[in-house]
Structures are given as structure tokens and as C-alpha cells.
Specification:
This protein is of the alpha/beta class. It has helices at about 65-75, 95-110, 125-135, 150-160, 165-175, 195-205, 220-230, 240-250, and strands at about 5-15, 20-25, 60-65, 85-90, 110-115, 140-145, 180-185, 210-215. The chain has an eight-stranded mixed beta sheet. Helix 6 (about 195-205) links the parallel strand 7 and strand 8.
């Protein structure tokens, strides 16, 4: 039995997949996105018996897949025909054994399953790939960010290059797994037209895209960074204007992707 490291969960999520969803936030992420609004989920430190945010950023607790599913199923009557469970993070794919057990149980219970992932841990080799292939068999939908299409800028923005992420997109297309693509629009970093055009051109190569969403940058997590003692690199960055958001939506052709709509 694999134990999952969980930071928290939300019982009535409405933005992380179709319908009303039970959203699980896993603990631990290799990325250090400058705009991350959940820095308390970064640490891979021992979360057992811990609640809340500690001095080193470790938080959350360990739980079995069966116990977590039991918590989720208490809310199943609210999900309707479209809802289900989404596992976000942190980085869910950093806990493959737990995810595989959790989603296998969820599918056996007739639950729609969704993963919100960066894709950074993806590899096409070894045991990791074998587990990902098995996990995809019990996953209905993935939400995946294109944080920046340029590898150099992506590394500056997140601490990692995007090669594995781009390959993950291609893999998901190859297996015809439905995805929603998200792009966080950060003024001066990810909102320039040339990069948006490159992003659009890449998205056009994929045949499994149900939705494309532009997410305007915000600094709502500034207080979390202060509490954790982490410098917030984008503290002087403003949210994008409505005009820049509209421009990004036009370039990325978000209106043409007619998957599930609220």
C-alpha cells in the first residue's frame, strides 16, 4: 500500500476540471515557478503527522488511497454528471505509486479522474514510464500548463527546462488522452506576441486538446511567501490588462476549443 503525501483538499472545486470536483493538493514539487500560488506544497520533506505550514515549508499529512477516496465519495452526490476528482499539487506525478492506486480505486467506484500536472517528471523510459502508462489507463483528463514555449525562458521562470513537458504533450497526443492546456499570462514574461504565436503553433500540432485557457497572473499568494520566508520574485509585477488577456485569447485561439463548458 502506497501512502500519499497530501497538503490539503477542496470539496467543491469549480475550476480544476469539468463540473464540481473534489480537488486534492499533493505535497512536493520539483518546480519553482515564480508565479506559483501554492508554495506551501513545494517541500518533499516528511509530512507525516504534520498539519499546516511549518518553518521549512513542509505541510500536510500522509494518507492511504482508500482513506482519501472515502473522504472524496462523501461529496459524490454534489458532482452531478460532469464532476469527479482532480489531483493537483505540488506535483501529482512525483507520487506515481500512490496515484496509480488512488485512481484505480476511483475508477472502480465510477469516478471521473483528472490530473493537474506540470509534466516535468515525465520520462519515456524505465519504471517511471511503465507506471505512467498504467496511470493513464485510469485517468480521464489532464490539465497541463505551457508555462513558456521557450526552453531558456521556461528554465528562468520555473527552474527547469521544458523538454520533458513538450514530450509529455506529444505522448498524451499519441495515446489520444484528452487535455486542457493552460497558460499563465505574466506581463513582461509570458505575454509577448512572438512567444504566444509559437505556443499557438505548437498547440495546433496536437489533436487531443479540448480546451485552452489563459490564466491572468495575480499576486494573491504574496502573504504565503512572507509566512514561509521565501522571497517573491514577481512582487513588482502587475496583473495583465484586459486588453492583453484578450490579445492572448485571440492569438491562442481559445474560442475554437469547444470541450466542456461551464
Amino acid at each position: 500500500m502506497a501512502l500519499g503525501r497530501i497538503n490539503k483538499f477542496e470539496t467543491f472545486g469549480s475550476v480544476d476540471g469539468p463540473g464540481i470536483r473534489f480537488v486534492v493538493f499533493t505535497q512536493g514539487c520539483p518546480m519553482r515557478c515564480k508565479f506559483c500560488h501554492n508554495p506551501e506544497t513545494w517541500s518533499f520533506g516528511n509530512a507525516a503527522g504534520s498539519l499546516g505550514i511549518s518553518g521549512n515549508g513542509s505541510a500536510g499529512y500522509e494518507i492511504s488511497a482508500s482513506d482519501l477516496l472515502a473522504k472524496a465519495l462523501r461529496y459524490k452526490t454534489y458532482w452531478g454528471k460532469d464532476g469527479g476528482i482532480t489531483v493537483s499539487g505540488g506535483e501529482p506525478l512525483a507520487q506515481l505509486d500512490f496515484m496509480l492506486e488512488f485512481f484505480t480505486l476511483a475508477k472502480a467506484a465510477g469516478v471521473h479522474t483528472c490530473i493537474d500536472t506540470s509534466g516535468v517528471t515525465f520520462r519515456r523510459s524505465g519504471e517511471t514510464f511503465a507506471k505512467i502508462e498504467r496511470l493513464m489507463q485510469v485517468t480521464d483528463l489532464l490539465l497541463v500548463d505551457i508555462k513558456h514555449i521557450d526552453n531558456v525562458v521556461h528554465k528562468e521562470l520555473t527552474g527547469h527546462g521544458n523538454e520533458n513537458i513538450i514530450d509529455f504533450f506529444r505522448y498524451l497526443d499519441e495515446i489520444h488522452k484528452p487535455i486542457w492546456i493552460r497558460h499563465v499570462l505574466v506581463p513582461g514574461i509570458s505575454d509577448d506576441d512572438a512567444a504566444l504565436v509559437r505556443t499557438r503553433d505548437f498547440i495546433r500540432t496536437l489533436g487531443n486538446v479540448e480546451r485552452v485557457e489563459v490564466l491572468p497572473y495575480h499576486a494573491f499568494a504574496l502573504g504565503k511567501y512572507a509566512e514561509l520566508g521565501i522571497e517573491y520574485a514577481l512582487k513588482d509585477t502587475q496583473s495583465p490588462t484586459a486588453e492583453r488577456v484578450a490579445n492572448a485569447n485571440e492569438i491562442l485561439e481559445t474560442a475554437k476549443y469547444t470541450g466542456w463548458k461551464k
